[in-house]
Structure formats: structure tokens, C-alpha cells
Design a protein that fits this description.
The chain is an alpha+beta fold and about 300 residues long. The chain is about 35% helix and about 25% strand. It has 3 domains: about 45 residues, 2-Layer Sandwich (Uridine Diphospho-n-acetylenolpyruvylglucosamine Reductase, domain 2), CATH 3.30.43.10; about 110 residues, Uridine Diphospho-n-acetylenolpyruvylglucosamine Reductase, domain 3 (2-Layer Sandwich); about 110 residues, Enolase-like, domain 1. Keywords: FAD, Flavoprotein, Oxidoreductase.
Length: about 300
């Protein structure tokens, strides 16, 4: 199938794009990489009356250090995030997760911000950002507001962004001290959507006790699931088999996936438990063996 007829605009400045969004309201859609939007329009699951192509908004295309955080422009290509020295040095979790996105052609075209706004609960970038923390900067014609990542994802394919707003940049804090990270996902083939994915960012003190852990699961809820109960149960503890068993029990209690044509709920719950344990263990081992790796 092909999309319905639509008007097309290609603004050269952020203000111009925001004006077009304000005028279009619910009838307008932003297009950047188009890796998600174009197939959805071709299947006529979405039929916007106008497309606003933001590829010429070069101010939204960057990766840069700023004191204790990394800033990434919403238009930055996923392949650039994958290859970035800044990301590899300070946000290792992203470097590990991004290669799982589709294929090289997908990442060459897809944007960092586009993946976040699309908000697929199995997608690698939303999952990683939830584990890393940080804020998203969202602009309208009248203001720019900041939203914590925990408050950004509302439900399946739905975020806190309003029709007259646009994601402009993402700020991700840099972890200090001894920290580690890990990302795993299970899919039928490399490049397919994950059945279940798991991301973990973990920090330990000088006695190798866990001081903070952000464990996030994808593919088990309508949004990336941050398991705060895991942080509560592991803080102040040295990793052990009994502690990993507690992680598995928490996942078993908190996760309630649905069955679909790709996997049963029982299989997804089984994967979630095993991947959660694996990511926590790998992140902890990385923190022990590579002091200041990400700082």
C-alpha cells in the first residue's frame, strides 16, 4: 500500500518547524529518518495531512560534552552515536545497545530522537536511556521544557510530547566512580524487534558494594520497565548468587507480559528473568574490573 495524499514542508530553522507544527496541530507529523513513520503511513495506520521534514535543521545534529553530561541532538543519526568516541568513553551502554538496532542501513538513516519519540517498548535507545537516566528537551513555539526520562514514555507508541511540540536534544549524565553496564536482547534474527531486552547501569563503592543500579526491561510492558525494586534490594550489597536469585524473584513478581504471535507470556517472563540476572551480573563484573571506565 501507499500513503494517502499529504502536504510536504522542509523548514530550514527550528522556529520555522515549530510554527508549522503549531499551525498543523493534530494533522501534522514530523519526519526525520522515516524508519518507523514511512512503513506506518504505507500501511495507513497513520494518515497525516502534512509532513514536516526536519532534516535541514542542522542545529539538532550533534554529540557534545558539557561538564557532567553528554548532549545529543535529536537529529543525530544512530550510526553516529554508535561510532562516537564521546559515547564510547562516557556512555558505554549506548555503544553496546545501538548495534542491535535493525541493520547498518537502518542506523545510517534512523535518528536518536526519532527512536525515542516513536517509543516502541522493545527499542534499544528508549531502553538504554531509561537505564542511563537524563532529561529530554521538548520545544514548542512558546517554550522549551525539560522532561525526565522516567516521565517521558506514557504507553505503547505514546510519549509526553504534544502535537505542537518537537524533541530537540537529550542530556545524559555521566556516571562517576566505579560503574559498569550491560545490554542483552533476544530476537528471532539479528535486526528483528526484540522479544525481550534488558539494560543495566550499575555503580559500586570501594568495597564492591552496589550503590546504585538501574535495571530496565523491554518487551514486557507498554513502556520500558524500570525495576526500582531491584535498586532497593541490592543497594549496599555485594553481588552474590542469593542476591541474583532475589533479582529473578522481583522480575517474576513485577513482570506481566502479554502473549502475541511472536511469543507467549510465559516465554517472555522466562526470558525477562534470565536476561535480568545476566545483565546485572555482567554490569557488576564490568564495574569491578574497569574502574572509572565511563568517567
Amino acid at each position: 500500500m501507499k500513503p494517502v495524499k499529504f502536504d510536504y514542508y522542509s523548514p530550514k530553522a527550528v522556529d520555522e518547524a515549530l510554527t508549522l507544527l503549531e499551525e498543523a496541530g493534530f494533522d501534522g507529523k514530523i519526519i526525520a529518518g522515516g524508519q518507523s513513520l514511512v512503513p506506518i503511513m504505507n500501511m495507513r495506520l497513520s494518515s497525516p495531512e502534512c509532513l514536516i521534514d526536519i532534516n535541514r535543521l542542522h542545529d539538532l545534529h550533534f554529540i557534545e560534552m558539557d561538564s557532567d553530561k553528554v548532549k545529543i541532538g535529536a537529529l543525530t543519526r544512530q550510526a553516529e552515536v554508535e561510532r562516537s568516541d564521546v559515547v564510547q568513553k562516557h556512555l558505554g551502554l549506548l555503544s553496546e545497545a545501538v548495534p542491535f538496532i535493525g541493520h547498518v542501513q537502518t542506523r545510517n538513516r534512523g535518528t536518536f530522537g526519532g527512536s525515542l519519540v516513536h517509543a516502541d517498548p522493545t527499542a534499544e535507545i528508549p531502553l538504554s536511556l531509561m537505564a542511563l537516566g537524563g532529561t529530554l528537551h521538548i520545544a514548542s513555539k512558546d517554550e522549551v521544557r525539560e522532561v525526565n526520562v522516567e516521565d517521558f514514555f506514557i504507553t505503547y507508541l505514546t510519549t509526553d510530547i504534544m502535537p505542537n511540540e518537537m524533541l530537540t536534544e537529550i542530556h545524559i549524565p555521566i556516571e562517576k566512580g566505579r560503574n559498569g553496564y550491560s545490554f542483552y536482547e533476544i530476537s528471532r534474527r539479528h535486526g528483528d524487534f526484540a522479544l525481550v531486552a534488558s539494560a543495566c547501569q550499575l555503580t559500586i563503592d570501594h568495597l564492591e558494594r552496589i550503590s546504585n543500579v538501574r535495571l530496565v526491561l523491554g518487551g514486557v510492558e507498554a513502556t520500558p520497565l524500570l525495576l526500582e525494586e531491584v535498586n532497593e534490594s541490592m543497594t549496599g550489597e555485594v553481588l552474590s548468587d542469593s542476591l541474583l536469585k532475589k533479582v529473578e524473584d522481583i522480575v517474576d513478581e513485577m513482570v506481566d507480559p502479554e502473549s502475541d504471535i511472536h511469543a507467549t507470556a510465559e516465554y517472555r517472563r522466562h526470558l525477562a528473568k534470565k536476561l535480568a540476572v545476566r545483565t546485572v551480573k555482567s554490569a557488576y563484573e564490568r564495574a569491578r574490573g574497569e574502574t572509572n571506565e565511563c568517567s
